[in-house]
Amino acid sequence: MTKRTSDQSAAEAPVGKRQPCPCGSGKRYKACHGAESGSRQPIVTRPFGGLAAEGELVALREFVPSATAELPLRTGDRSILLATVLPMAAAAMVRNDGQAFVGLQVQTKSGDISSDLARAVEWAQQAEPGQSLPAVGPENVPTSVAPNRLQDLMDPQEQLSPQLYDDFSWWMPEDTEPSREVQLSLERANAAITPTQRIDAEGVCSAYWVDTGTKAHLRWVRSESEDRLIAALARLSARGELALDEDSRYAGSFRAHGLIVPVWDLDREKHASEWREPARALGQRLEEALSSLDDEPLTSTERRAREGLRGRQVTIR
């Protein structure tokens, strides 16, 4: 019998049929994982809980277009790269040069993304060069020896160091001519890329500058509980310290896999690197606000700010 981590059972929760499906598909629950046999499947709403890399995993699955990251596996001889998107939206593939990839931005087959990824990793560890896994599930991936979840495969204390790309040329080894099918998939994927850069600054993790073509944003995946994070943001808002600088404004937040992702609108004329210091300073202010919550209850002004922030949900799809 395989091991189920406490993070999974703790995160399973009932989901309303009209609510967004926690799997991240963008569909309502009743049209996605709640549709089968008319019964409700248990959904793990925080599938990457317990991992130091949780924030990066959420970012790579939800909004980073083209990136890879070495998966810090506990065992196994083959290097596995987590990838945002693979050719034909494959769940996993092994290039002809032997490099194995597991895709994050794929349709899941169960109510637990972590479980599906663990199965894809097991497949990638055993597959031959040139093979591709179009979908992952119990029907097409052996599970006799597979750990139950991603948390059982990787070192929970290790962070990810994503490598971002301007296109998807990394799909193919150098000096390799893609098939017509892969070439078409490559062209479609390249055309859909949104310029994105990771904000690399002291004390800043899982924060990304994104240019949508009409606006630039900072999207920052946070690991704190929603109530605590919104309270800290409200404290900064009441002090007039919630923006990164005079050329930015707090836009709102969205939920992704059990975490809250605050979003700031930014001046598109500024380069992504110009936001490193403002992000570092904002991160420091936010940490101080979070720490102060233990000793200083919100004031009436801060409570009003909190109610205003709760209603500012943004949509990125």
From TrEMBL:
Residues 1-38, 293-317 are annotated as: Disordered. It holds the Pfam family DUF5926. InterPro entries: DUF5926 (IPR045970), SEC_C_motif (IPR004027). This is DUF5926 domain-containing protein. Transmembrane segments: none annotated. It comes from the Bacteria. Residues 47-317 form the DUF5926 domain. Residues 301-310 have a biased composition (Basic and acidic residues).
